[in-house]
Specification:
Layout lengths: L2 H4 L2 E4 L3 H7 L3 H7 L4 E6 L14 H7 L3 H5 L14 H24 L4 E5 H8 L1 H10 L16 E5 L5 E5 L3 H11 L14 H6 L1 H12 L4 H7 L6 E4 L3 H4 L3 H6 L4 E3 L5 E3 L24 H7 L4 H9 L5
Parallel strand pairs: 1-2, 2-3
Antiparallel strand pairs: 4-5, 5-6, 7-8
Helix pairs in contact: 4-7
Length: about 325
C-alpha cells in the first residue's frame, strides 16, 4: 500500500508537465485515492498563458503582485528587495488554511477538494486594501515620506542611540495631551500649530520635525520609561536577533527550541496559530529531498527512472 493510497492530502508545487510525467497529476492520484485532497502551490495560477510558468516569490509575489512597489518611494529610486522566503512563508500558511478548509468540507460532505494557491494570488490578498482602493479611485494610493506623514502621531521616530520607535495613535487628539506630557513638552498641547488633528495635518512637516528633535535628544531607555503605561499604541522596532530575547515571545512559546541530528540546539519559528493555548513542539524538518527516493520507489519507479528524474531536474 503506497503513501498516496493512505494519505489525506497530496501537496505539490511541481509544474503540470512534471506532475503528469511522474504520474502524480490530480486525475492520476485520484485514481488511486478518490477521497484525497489535492493541493497545488504555484506561481501564477492554473489558468491563462502563464499557468505553466514557474515562479519564485521575489518575482511572482514581490514584483508581479505589487508588494515591492507598494513599499517603493516616488522619487525614482530602486524599490526595496524582499527578505528571504518572504512570499513563500505567507503562501505556505495560505495553503495550510486552504487544506484545513478542505478537510472540514470533506468531513461534512464527503467530497474532496482541489486546493490552489499561487504566489500571485497571495500577494493580491495581502495587498488587498491598496489594490481594491486603486480600482475604485483609478489611481495608486498616495505615498507620503516619513517627513510629511498625514498624522504625525502615526510615524517612526529615531532616538539618540539610533533606535526607532513606532507610534500608531490613529485617534491622535485622544492621546495628544498625554503624548506631549510624556515627551516633556506640555507646551505642544495648546500650540496653535499642533493643537488638533486638522491643524497638525496642515503643519505636519513642522510637527514631525519638532517631534524628531525631541526623540533624538534622549536614548531609547529614557523613552521606554517615559511611555510605560501609555494608553496609546506604540512599540520599539526590533532586530531579528532581539526577538530571541523578547519576554513576550518567550512567554508565549513563539520560538520553540529543537535539536538537530548533530545535537545542536536552536530555536525555530513556530506556526502563528496555537491550539488550546499550547505552544508547538517542533522537530527539524527532513533533509532537502531526504525521502525522495523512498517515495518514488513506493510509487513504482525503479532506480534508473529515479536517476533519470534527477538528471532532468524533475526531483531533487
Amino acid at each position: 500500500m503506497t503513501l498516496i493510497e493512505t494519505a489525506d492530502v497530496f501537496l505539490t508545487n511541481l509544474l503540470p508537465d512534471s506532475r503528469r510525467r511522474m504520474g502524480i497529476d490530480v486525475d492520476q492520484v485520484r485514481a488511486r485515492n478518490p477521497k484525497i485532497i489535492y493541493a497545488r502551490g504555484h506561481g501564477y495560477g492554473i489558468k491563462g498563458e502563464e499557468a505553466t510558468r514557474g515562479g519564485y516569490d521575489l518575482a511572482a509575489y514581490w514584483a508581479r503582485g505589487g508588494i515591492g512597489m507598494g513599499y517603493a518611494t516616488d522619487d525614482g529610486s530602486y524599490p526595496p528587495l524582499q527578505l528571504p522566503a518572504f512570499g513563500d512563508v505567507y503562501g505556505g500558511l495560505t495553503i495550510a488554511a486552504g487544506i484545513a478548509g478542505a478537510l472540514v468540507k470533506r468531513e461534512r460532505t464527503g467530497e474532496p477538494s482541489i486546493v490552489d494557491v499561487s504566489l500571485l494570488s497571495a500577494a493580491i490578498w495581502q495587498l488587498g486594501p491598496d489594490i481594491v482602493a486603486s480600482g475604485v479611485t483609478g489611481q495608486d494610493r498616495p505615498k507620503f515620506q516619513l517627513e510629511e506623514m498625514p498624522n504625525p502621531a502615526v510615524n517612526l521616530y529615531k532616538t539618540r542611540d539610533g533606535r526607532f520607535i513606532a507610534f500608531v495613535l490613529l485617534q491622535a487628539d485622544r492621546f495628544w495631551s498625554d503624548f506631549c506630557t510624556r515627551l516633556g513638552r506640555p507646551d505642544l498641547i495648546s500650540d496653535e500649530r499642533f493643537a488638533n488633528a486638522p491643524v497638525r495635518f496642515e503643519n505636519r512637516k513642522e510637527c514631525i520635525a519638532e517631534l524628531r528633535a525631541i526623540f533624538a535628544a534622549e536614548d531609547l531607555a529614557h523613552w521606554e520609561k517615559s511611555f510605560a503605561g501609555f494608553e496609546g499604541v506604540w512599540d520599539v522596532m526590533r532586530t531579528a536577533r532581539e526577538i530571541h530575547d523578547d519576554p513576550q515571545v518567550i512567554a508565549n512559546g513563539y520560538l520553540p527550541r529543537t535539536t538537530d541530528t548533530n545535537g545542536n540546539e536552536f530555536a525555530l519559528a513556530g506556526s502563528p496559530v496555537q491550539f488550546d493555548e499550547t505552544p508547538l513542539s517542533l522537530r527539524c524538518a527532513p533533509g532537502h529531498g531526504e525521502h525522495t527516493d523512498e517515495v518514488l520507489a513506493e510509487l513504482g519507479y525503479d532506480e534508473e527512472q529515479i536517476i533519470d528524474f534527477k538528471i532532468k531536474s524533475v526531483v531533487l
